Each structure stands twice: as C-alpha cells, then as structure tokens.
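Human: Respectfully, please carefully check these tokens:
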Amino acid sequence: MIDKINSLIFYVFLFFLPWQTIFIFKEIQIANEKFQYGTIGIYFFEIVLLFWVLLNSFLLKKCDNKKLLFAVLLFAVYVTFSVFWAPNKILALSYLLPLILGIFSFLILQKKILNFKKFTFVFILSISLHGILGIYQFLNQSVYANKWLGISEHLAWQGGSSVLETSTERFLRAYGGMPHPNILGGFLIIAILLGIGAYLKTSFLEKYWKYFLLFIIPINFLALLTTFSRSALLALFFGLLVLFSYYIYSKKFIKIKNILFLSITLFTIGILFFYLFSNLLTNRINISSRLEKKSINERHLLIKESQKIITQKSILGTGLGNYTYTILKNKKEIPQEIWRIQPVHNIYLLIFAELGIIGFSLFLFIVIFIIYDFLESFSKQNTNRVIFSTITLSLLILSLFDHWLWTTHSGIIVFWILLGFSREKYIGDF
C-alpha cells in the first residue's frame, strides 16, 4: 500500500511537471512590465516532488557509481556556494531549489523501480494536452490567459509574442501552456521519442496501448509543427536517427520496419502541413526576411553579451540564476521593451557565464558521463536505457540553440529526471 502511494505521488508530479501553476512570492516590474527572469515563486510540481524526494531520501545512500555520485554532488555543492557571490541571492536560491530537487531525484532513480508503462502514459498524456492546446491556439491565433495553469495571454500583434510574419500578416506560434513555443517544442520531442520508444517495445498483444501510441504520436508531431521550432525539429531528427541506428546495430529488422513506418507517417504529416502553410514555412527558413534577420541579430548580440560576462567573471561566474540580473545592472539605460533582456540561447555559454570555468567543467564532466553511458547501453543493447539516453542527448543538442533547460524550473527538473532514467539499472518492460 505504501509503495502504491509512493508511486502515485511520483505520477502526480510527472503529470503536473509540464504545467506552470506557480505560487508567486515576488515579481519585478520594470517600466510597467513584468521581468520574467526576476520572478520568484514555487511551482506546484516542485511541492509534490519535494514530498516524494523526502519519502525516498533513504535511497540516496545506495548509489553504486561512486565516481558519478562524487561528480554530481560536487556540482551540487559548487552551485550551492555560487549563491554566496551572486548579487541577487534570493533569485539564486529560487533557481537552486529545482536544481537540488532534480539532482536528488536523479540519485533516487538509480535505485527506484517504477512501472514504465504508467510513466510513459502519464508523461505523454500530460504533454499531449499541451500539444492539443497548442494546435487550438495556432488555429485560433490567440493564447488566453489562465492564472491557475500559469498561462499568459499572447496575441499576434503584441510585442514580445512569438510570431511568424508574411508580407501582409503576423501569425502566432503555438505555446500550449508553456512560456514559449520553443519550450513546448522541447517537451513535445520528449513525448514523441518516448512514444516511439514505447511503441517499438510494445508486444502485439497490447493492442489498445499500441493504438493509443499510434494515435497520439502524430498529434504531438502536428503540435510540434505548429510551434515552428527549428531547434526542436533538429533534435527530433537526431533522436530518430539514433534510434534507427540502434535497431540496425541490434539487427532487429521488425523494429526497423516499424520505425520506418512511423518516420514516413510523420514525414507525410509534415509535407501536408507545410503545403497548407507554405507561406509561413518560406518566411521561417528565409534568413533574409525581416523577422529572421532580427532574430539572428538578437541572438548574435546575446552571444556577445555572454562572452563579455564570461571574460569579466571567468572563474566564478555571476552566480546561479543571476545572468539576466547582471545584464540588467550593467545597462546604462533600461530598455523600453524589457522582454528583450533574456539569457543567451545556449545553455553551455549560459552555465559558463553563471558558474564560471569551475562550474562549467563540472557540468561537462556530467555530460561526458551521459555520452559514456549511452555508448555502453548501445553496445550492450539495453533498449530501455538507449531510449532515455537518446532523449537526453537530443535535449543536449537542442540546448545548443536554447536556454530553457537551465532557466525554467520544469526544464531543470525534466533534464535530471530523464538522466536518472537513462542510467537506471532496474528498468522493467514498458
């Protein structure tokens, strides 16, 4: 009974992980606008996860891989100490909570046995609700605010809204319940790759489960297309390529046939979607269009800003969560459009800027462990671990072009949860 309640708490956490319900303690208003990266609060899913971590804290003592345990704990200790030299310590502490919760969850999952069919169903279902909401938003061209779900209003004509532009109109990209379309795209690739992995492992006897996956994977892919997130599409392509290579290496030809079928299905959906919205696609891939030029210039400026901070604070960094705060302090004049103050769209540069060379080196050490574990799982044909490692690596590829895995509470935690499953030695069948 206790084990069932324990597992139920974890599944409740998983369901709410993509949702942005937050209890706000403090907001920073600049020029009558909310400064997104200065908001301090605790998310509902963090409260549930904190309870689960406390229930399972006895498992923290049972991690077998001492080298990995040492590296992760050293990283956690260093990040904690970075709070002391961060100019805004309250802001740093607000980012420390999800990081510590994520790391503890990662360590607990080394020994925790869960029903992975339930894990897959709960996580895919939750993200799929975002996907369906995103499709509706794209077709309706508006995002309605909902304070209980943490959804802000977005309209195509508003500054700060993520849009595509043609010669005559502005089109709103899909947000789902996320703060940005790229974040929705990131969560959708998790759901798609997890769904494909589950489908490839499912027995022909589990026909209803198989039908559910065959139904929901294309819907999530369609939702991904409505985000127009190029980094997410690139990460998805990478993930599919890795899974395809794995099944060729394993000589599981029926699985190769299945993954080809799914890939062709998704490709067909993509062709139909872009046929219907070819004008939007043309403007999205045309780097000479006004919005794309603007986007490229902004990203270039963000990279230059990060390089400047790295040069100034190369040893210790700005402190956890203090990157945008430091940029804001360094500005001679506060910009009228405060949403333009944002992190560099590359978590590796961002981590270097916030934690300095020491913290960045510790993080790279963990990334090397991830790659090593993936190669080991690949060679030993441990399919479950390969699936989760593939998703984790896909997110690391995506992180070359985005920052949400480091700057959002859900992004921080989902990274460590997936990393925990990619190292799990007790993964059962789906």
